[in-house]
């Protein structure tokens, strides 16, 4: 930059500010000096620019120009003004002004003037030719020039000067001596006759010219500078060379050359490689294609000889022949192998054409080339590829035989033949994945004994290992399961083989071989490092320790401490300030207080605090420590342990939030169960949910379906975000059919359509673009569907959570979703129960009405029948006491008594049955001694047994007690024993046995030797008024006894069963709770239980604890079989029925632990029973197992799909049935 001081007034300063940028672009650095300040004490500059506007010639001297001229002789200055009077011009020139400029003065004009005056940076590096044959004189000239940064060349005579200057023109010519035979004008004219020397300035040294020649030469020849003394030569050269034309003003003939170039360029094909050279072979022009293929830029090529592209492929004779051809003016054609900048070689088919001057001598050469590299390479690639593949196969086979201990030598040995072929000097394995066995290897194997060098570099490589210094000739990534684990590269001299190796994918094959070997070696190595691995794992357990010398203040910590603070090992300098600086600002006071309390008060040091990592993340650390004190009790050292507990803190926070959520859900569910307020519960849940998730607003909706089965939303709870009167009125309709969304082809219905949560955030590209005017903005949004099983029952949505919504939050809210679904489902069940309750109330009212009518009828019948029966039975008894009656009359009386008593029994049984069915039979349950009860019962039937010649056998039952009603149990036993006598064969037997079924139950079995009952008729036994055809015989009976017996026993918490085989008699049994098993009673009816007359306390009926199996089956043989099978399962209670309808009733009342169900029942289908059981809330959880003869695969599949918990086929596999029962009864 040229330093210029601009002297003037405020107008000058404004001009300078306006032109500052342009002045700087011209290389001018200008500063303003006010003229009132004067120039006497101003610092020196390269040039003074003085604005004369407003200055008279008389006041010029007051500026201090004379003082500056005396301080810096020869320092130029320039005057500028709008008008110059003659007097002013003479004055400034007399004071040393170099130029006078009229305004306006442009920055370019000022810059040109500086160059003309030789002001600025010296023209360093210029080369001058010195015509001087005297050595001593030349040395003086050369010393002056080199001292100023110029170079010179001595030319001893004029002939050599002309030859040398024609080939390479200098920047200037110094004439110190010339032949006496020539005049100075003749010498200069001779030099100017050559075009190359036309513009070269000539410097004449004083004393070389003869009388009169100097004036003649300088007046006739341009660009000649006279130098009075050698010491002035450098400054004169610098001034003159700085005035040479710049590249922006080329000579006229340059435009002609450019025009010629454009014409020639049009004739060349766009894809040709073109260059131009001067007569000496130096490149003067190249096209873009040349630069692309060579790798050099045009600036790097121009001025260079074509030798820069020599590849060494051709012999020197090849180039001599080429140069000889073109230098003679002939065209040369041929193929040349060149070397690009990156060292690669390329082949071109070249045509070199010389440009000839008027004398027929070449003055330029143009070379047009075509790239034929691919043709040359194709000739050798196939054979190279085959040979390389063979070497790869050999290498792979050798590596298979090498273990991990010898892996490093095995790699080098296996790859040596391949490296020789590729001219590779070394192999580099740069591994990203940690291969533990590498630590036992040598990191570097230098080249030796004809084997290549091998470098292994990982993140754990030893410091100072620089790896190969030669270039990479082939490289490929090492991948395991598509994950990059490192890089393999071969280093050496690039060649055709290496190029083929890379381009044909062979290098990738080598990489796969090495990856396979590394993986195999890693597996081998891992087998041997169990204990070492444990030690390393403990090292990285995330615990650091520190020690603080309290007296000296020095602090020591292990390498893990910086890691806990977010730094790499060794990155954080050990100091107390760095420790405190890493602590979270909000926790620093607490940490320092804890340390102080430990030191001063011997308080245990234990604190959890946060640290801020360099990347801004916050972690939680737990520190514990203790103090070491000297004999005087002074603290001298403090030891501490630091552990990262971030995960624990986050887990605690998560548990805390989960606890808040679960407590909220528990309170909401409890409130719903106790109060049954559906919408109030949802309002509370929504409010708590918004607080928990830090959301602005949201809603909870129920999914309903219209008549077209199309889903729609009914809003049950919503945040009131009303923005106007109409919206406020809309929000008041929450929970009704007037606040519903039926059009769900939008974001509100997205989760319903997709069946999964929908998240909207700024990154998703989804927005609520059609909100009503005034509606609050929705920035983030979450909508979650609510399912009960496969059924979509509801949805809830949240909006405007600052940190957005994600999968973690959705997972966190799963309990909320489940609870909300339960509440919706429960409300629906309650609604359904209310409907059912109303239906039941109406049904009960009808049933009560029917019962009242029946009771009135039975009461009337009882009265009407008992009145005449009373007379008949009374008079019969009187007759029976009359001793005057003859035998025939006595027999008639007995028949009347018998018939009367039978009729009375019939009436009582009908009334009892009616009372049981209406639920109005009173019982008094108590512990009854069976021995006494049986004796009382048998007393009543012994006469009947004797009359029919039936033997009665009773086991000893002393000490056995059951829980029952004395009267009703005696009535039930009397019915069974009477039937056993009546339906027995002549001289038959009736046996009564009592046995403990398990610790909770007692079985009373009444066996007879009668004809038995067909198994198909057994289910009809307990039907009222059904005597199975006995009404056609002489045996008295009503068909009510067994039905009444069954009802009575079940009311007492027991059960009745029968086992019979045609020809082998029958066994009827009663199963009643034992005195110890009182807790097992679960009566199937609902009697009013009153204490017995001699019992002082009421007896409660607790829930049944014995496992119960309900078997619904119409085949007696199957019933008997399952009964026998269940005898192998101690403690199980079997209930049986052959009716599907009765089975449903028993399932609801008895609540069995498992249901065995035959599919083909006479009254209904097993699938209908299954659906009914699963749809009933009281029985939906009871396991149902199919036990059927439908054994086809499609039938089994259908059964399991229908919902059977298990599907067993007949014939029954006993073990399979027991295992299945055990699974569900456990």
From TrEMBL:
It holds the Pfam family Response_reg. SUPFAM superfamilies: ATPase domain of HSP90 chaperone/DNA topoisomerase II/histidine kinase, CheY-like, GAF domain-like, Homodimeric domain of signal transducing histidine kinase, PYP-like sensor domain (PAS domain). InterPro entries: CheY-like_superfamily, GAF, GAF-like_dom_sf, HATPase_C_sf, HATPase_dom, His_kinase_dom, HisK_dim/P_dom, HisK_dim/P_sf. It is a multi-pass membrane protein. Residues 860-1076 form the Histidine kinase domain. Residues 1108-1225 form the Response regulatory domain. Its EC number is 2.7.13.3. This is histidine kinase. It comes from Marinobacter daqiaonensis. The lineage of its organism: Bacteria, Pseudomonadati, Pseudomonadota, Gammaproteobacteria, Pseudomonadales.
